Amino acid sequence: MINEKLEKLNQEIAKGEARLRRAQHEEKILEHQVKQLTRKERTHRLCTRGAMLESFLLRPEVLTDEDVMDILKQAFSQSGMKEIVAESVKGRVAGESLTE
Q1: What one-character-per-residue DSSP string does 51-96 give?
Q2: Is 3 in the same domain as 39?
Q3: For 34-63, what is each residue's pLDDT tens digit?
Q4: Are 67 and 33 in a shared domain?
Q5: What's the rounded Cα separation, in Å, for the pair 100 and 60?
Q6: Has this prediction a pTM greater than 0.70?
């Protein structure tokens, strides 16, 4: 009788461990999916914003990366630009906290 109870408890432990391993595996899969989504979102954002930037450049295909960086440095060093960017970010961050 004691052996039967011990056997039953060991079986329950084995089932529990199997469920735990399955749950851990599913967790890893979900974490990977979140990373993939984040990567896809970032790639989409970069492509979209790169296209926006190119729409303002004359003949972007002839400009080097250094040329574009110089243009951006010049544009963002203009008086008031840092404040405009900071206000945009501030407005978005404030909006996030309201929806969360």
Answers
A1: HHHHHHSSSGGG--HHHHHHHHHHHHTSTTHHHHHHHHHHHHHHHH
A2: yes
A3: 888 899 999 999 999 999 999 999 999 999
A4: no
A5: 40
A6: no
